[in-house]
Amino acid sequence: MRKLLFGPLSGMLLLMLTTQGCAMGVRKPDAATLTGTVRVVGNEPFTRLILTTADGVRGKDYLLLGPLLDELRKSFQGKKVSLEGALCSSPEPRFSNCFEPARIVSAP
Fold first, then answer.
1. Which one of 10, 20, 43, 90 is most buried, by most CB atoms within 10 A?
2. Would you say 34 and 51 are in contact if contact means Cβ atoms under 8 Å apart?
3. Average pLDDT for residues 76-102, to the nearest whole number?
């Protein structure tokens, strides 16, 4: 009887510990609001949209990703905007900073 009870209980305990361990590693991306100038860099067909912030003497460039790229490229190129979204890891080695805007907070 003891052997029959111990097997399923230990299996259930092991399952609970492994699934909880996986859930602890998941983090939501850091929410942030960035203000800067939207610019297009690169040559066709490899252009990228970036946001240049005015941090210090030399601004920081953030590679922009996500569904708002077309709207930002068409309506806000060369303009100063505030974007709300999440910092992300850059898929390209050329850019060390990456930002995925969720919405446009303000624009001129």
1. 90
2. yes
3. 93
Q: Average pLDDT for residues 1-29, to the nearest whole number?
A: 56
Instruction: Report CA 34 to chain centroid distance, whole Å.
Output: 13
User: Does residue 45 sit in helix, strand or coil?
Assistant: coil
Nearest CA to 50 out of 60, 40, 35, 36 is that of 40
pLDDT of residue 11: 62
Could you tell me the two tokens for 2? 């003891």
Judged against a pLDDT cut of 90, whether residue 21 lies above it is answered with no
51-60 burial string, b = 16+ CB within 10 Å, else e?
Answer: bbeeeeeeeb
- Show the domains of the chain with their CATH numbers: 31-106 (2.40.50)
Say if CB 99 and CB 88 are below 8 A apart. yes
